[in-house]
Amino acid sequence: MEIQEKGICRLSIVPVRAEGSDKSEIVSQLLFGEHYTVTEVTKDKKWLRILIHFDKYEGWIDAKQHTFISEDYFNQINNVDYKISTDLSSSILYQKHQLPIVIGSILPISTNELFKMEEQLAYNGESKSLSQKREYDFLKHIACKYLNAPYLWGGRSPFGIDCSGFTQIVFRICGYPLPRDASQQIRAGALVPALEETKPGDLAFFENEAGKIHHVGILLNKDDIIHASGLVRIDTLDEKGILNKSTGSYSHRLSSIRRVLKD
Questions:
Q1: Is 70 within 8 Å of 76 (Cβ atoms)?
Q2: Alpha-carbon torsion 99, 103, 106, 112, what sign?
Q3: Three-state SS at 26
Q4: What is the pLDDT along the chain (263 residues), one digit of tens a residue?
Q5: 1 bridge partner residues
Q6: Handedness of CA 219, 221, 222, 226 (dihedral sign)
Q7: Most buried among 6, 92, 170, 200, using CB within 10 Å?
Q8: Sheet-wide strand order for 58-62
Q9: What is the dihedral of CA 190, 193, 198, 202, to 10 degrees?
């Protein structure tokens, strides 16, 4: 059943699945404040297919975790410079109840009258403007907050995150939107021709034996990379790829490097 209803995430984290089933794999996650369009509903109305507005990613969510918003409110979110949380974890007062949220959550803090009518929220944690671009020092500060976060396929939170979810969230907090998957992110920014020409904050992409992009990380300098592999960790990077500091062996084969941060 096709539909074009609008929705917003009003839970800490909502799994987005490949199919409309609890048994289906998690392909991404919604964080508090992220909004979306419902494009399809299962016949039993238990699952909703959504198009996430920020990165145009699609998947299925449990209908019980859907919060409806009006078309006017949806459009307001698109046109108001909201805040993004920079606290690793914190809480927000939503409808007079405390709700835990994680870093990267969108905070609709606005004096807009529509906002006042539709929702009641209060937040006292650390945040920054979504549109405000920040450069490498801040990016490194945010990236290192995720150190030791466990790897989770489809994850986008400090309690479980995958490689492209990690780079996407870190760059979003710094004001640079990236697509969801590494195979999509490789089209962002500009190509860096050689490892010697890299700068801190560049994205490094890695390929499997078939030549397909399957991993991404952030360069901290010419020799070190922070990435999610088992956990968010810092390893050594050279022309061959990532040298795992714990095992002393190569874990990923270098494909290319892209620059997204502005000089």
A1: no
A2: positive
A3: strand
A4: 566 899 999 999 999 999 999 999 999 999 999 999 999 999 999 999 999 999 999 999 999 999 999 999 899 888 888 899 999 999 998 888 899 999 999 997 654 443 444 567 788 889 999 999 999 999 999 999 999 999 999 999 999 999 999 999 999 999 999 999 999 999 999 999 999 999 999 999 999 999 999 999 999 998 999 999 999 999 999 999 999 999 999 999 999 999 999 86
A5: none
A6: negative
A7: 170
A8: 26-31, 13-17, 58-62, 47-52, 35-41, 6-8, 67-69
A9: 30
Return the exposure string of 114-143: e unless at least 16 CB atoms fall within 10 Å of the residue's CB, then b: ebeeeeebebebebbebeeebebebbbebb
Tokens encoding 79: 């046109």
Question: Terminal CA-to-CA distance of the chain, rounded, Å?
Answer: 47
Of 101, 83, 200, nearest in space to 157 by CA = 101
